[in-house]
From TrEMBL:
Residue ranges of TPR repeats: 172-205, 235-268
Protein name stated in the entry: Lipoprotein, putative
InterPro entries assigned to the protein according to its UniProt record, in alphabetical order: TPR-like_helical_dom_sf, TPR_rpt
Transmembrane annotation, as ranges: none
Domain of life where this protein originates: Bacteria
Family matches, as SMART domains: TPR (SM00028)
Keyword Lipoprotein appears in the UniProt entry: yes
Keywords in alphabetical order: Lipoprotein, TPR repeat
SUPFAM superfamilies: TPR-like
Length: 281
């Protein structure tokens, strides 16, 4: 007894095998290349997020030797150098990215950021000036504000900070920077408000807490603000407040605050002990 269905299936299989045999080696290679690109992309992301920064630098340097013109690898190297705190090399790497024919406005912003990290403020200013004004991003305006600060262009600085705050859902860091800008200008009350806002957005931002205490100390307000803090943070803030009191000439108040800092800290607080000894000596 014949089974037509089986015959048809076998014929279909034979035709499929025949079609497969006509597939070129080049097509197969291209298919494998596509898979490799996906795998490599995942590896790139891993190296940029959870990998050791210096290991990431080595990885991207090695990969770039085989693919010297691929901009995503150039970006990976530049970002890794920033993460590894190698600012001069990072600035050079971002310059190469920014000079690439596929570079974007955001690459120019990252180049300016790397230049600032390397202390090349004037050059960073020039790079930002060359970016179209239609490219409005949080990072761009944060950098513009920092450069305006460095040039003591306070009106521009405030405008850029305000714009940057409106372009991010996590403004704690930029509010802290803005507050520090006000602190350096001697506008202590406004600085205090901005530091408090920064802490509201990011309760774990200790830099803003410390700056808030500095702003209060500059106004001879030596009480700790009502903000979330761990016991060790409280001790450190009391230490900062004590030193601020001494700077204002209120030495006895400073000594009292330093003693409180030593008593508050859950472990031995060497910095506060050293400061108190210096005052007593």
């Amino acid at each position: 007894m014949r089974h037509p269905g089986i015959v048809i299936s076998c014929l279909a299989g034979a035709l499929a095998l025949s079609a497969c045999s006509k597939t070129s080696t080049g097509e197969v290679n291209r298919a494998f290349q596509d898979v490799n690109v996906v795998d490599e992309s995942n590896l790139n992301d891993i190296m940029l997020t959870v990998g050791d920064p210096n290991e990431a630098v080595v990885y991207f340097q090695r990969t770039l030797k085989d693919n010297p013109d691929r901009i995503e690898l150039m970006r990976g190297l530049a970002e890794s150098l920033v993460r590894a705190k190698r600012p001069t090399e990072a600035a050079s790497a971002w310059r190469r990215v920014a000079s690439h024919e596929e570079a974007t406005a955001e690459d120019q912003v990252d180049f300016a950021d790397a230049l600032i990290r390397d202390g090349q403020w004037e050059r960073a200013d020039g790079v930002l000036d060359g970016i179209p004004p239609t490219h409005e991003t949080y990072k761009r305006y944060r950098l513009e504000a920092m450069i305006a600060d460095s040039n003591k262009e306070w009106t521009k600085s405030d405008s850029f900070y305000e714009t940057a705050v409106g372009l991010t859902t996590r403004p704690g860091g930029v509010l802290n920077n803005w507050g520090y800008s006000k602190l350096t200008r001697g506008d202590f009350a406004e600085a205090e408000k901005l530091f408090a806002q920064a802490i509201q957005h990011d309760p774990d931002l200790f830099t803003a807490k410390n700056n808030l205490v500095l702003a209060r100390g500059a106004q001879r307000n030596y009480s700790l603000p009502v903000i979330p803090m761990q016991q060790s943070e409280r001790a450190q803030l009391l230490h900062t407040l004590g030193l601020s009191a001494v700077k204002q000439g209120d030495v006895e108040t400073g000594k009292t605050l330093l003693r409180e800092a030593i008593e508050t800290h859950p472990q031995h607080f060497e910095d506060a002990v050293r400061s108190l000894r210096a005052l007593q000596g």
